[in-house]
Amino acid sequence: MTSRFHWGTFSPWLPLQFTYYQPLKQNSNEFKNKEKHLDTDSESNYHRSHRRCRRTRPERLYLMIMRTITLIIIHCSATPEGRRLDFETCRRDHIRHRGFTDIGYHFYITRDGEIHRGRPLEKVGAHCKNHNRHSIGICYEGGFSADCTPADTRTLMQKGSMLALLRELRLLFPKALIVGHHDLNPVKPCPCFDAVKEYRF
Questions:
Q1: b/e string for 29-56 if b means 16 or more Cβ within 10 A?
Q2: Which residues contact 59 (CB under 8 A, 6 or more apart)?
Q3: What is the dihedral of CA 135, 138, 142, 145, to 10 degrees?
Q4: Nearest-CA neighbor of 56 among 19, 96, 87?
Q5: 74, 180 contact by CB (below 8 A)
Q6: Is the predicted pLDDT of residue 180 greater than 50, yes or no?
Q7: Domain hosting residue 57, numbered range
Q8: Domain check: are 136 and 81 in the same one?
Q9: In angstroms, rounded to a whole number, what is the distance separating the alpha carbons of residues 135 and 128?
């Protein structure tokens, strides 16, 4: 089973896209040496992504400072089985009815396994009160059974995509804990499965 990714919405090569957002200092020679090393990779997708990155001047890569991330929080959209809540609909709902400037999550996984990019990682999300500043929010479409009771309704495609995404994020933030919304707010059943137990990397 393979996860479905969209170039332009999300790339499976997350470390390549976001490594240089870290507040590190490198001189031009170090950057060139890193490019030379990365060019030895045999994956064609990796090469295509890297060519896009290296067109950016090295000194500009450090203008975006990544937040300190200590939590990766998993949510569900509380959508019953048989109903759809695609990325754009969720985004419009957050803007129109919650007063947000964008969708509150950083990633949204629809039932077909597609991962959609929400807020940029360097932006604070709006998905878990008192924990937004140092966290990344991931939401999957579903979470309620047909009779509107909390249930783990993730499809096999969603599970595969979520696992791949979490592995990439842990490469970027190895000290970040993977938790469910319920673990931080026991009143909420979200994400309707034990995220801490399932993703104990």
A1: eebeebeeeeeeeeeeebeebbeeebee
A2: none
A3: -40
A4: 19
A5: yes
A6: yes
A7: 24-62
A8: yes
A9: 9
Is 7 part of a structural domain of the chain? no
User: CA end-to-end span of the chain, whole Å?
Assistant: 20
Cα gap 152→75, rounded to integer Å: 11
Residues 6+ apart with CB under 8 A from 86: 110, 141
Question: In terms of domains, do 180 and 110 share one?
Answer: yes
Domain-embedded: residue 44: yes
Name the maximum alpha-carbon separation found in the chain.
60
- In single-letter form, the type of residue at position 123 comes to K
Beta bridge partners of 150: 144
Question: CB–CB of 107/116 below 8 Å?
Answer: yes
Tokens of 164: 């791949």
* Residue 67: predicted pLDDT: 85
**Mean pLDDT, all residues of the chain:** 76
Q: What's the whole-model pTM score?
A: 0.70
Are 134 and 55 in a shared domain? Answer: no
Helix (H, G, I), strand (E, B) or coil at 2: coil
- DSSP-assigned letter for residue 150: B
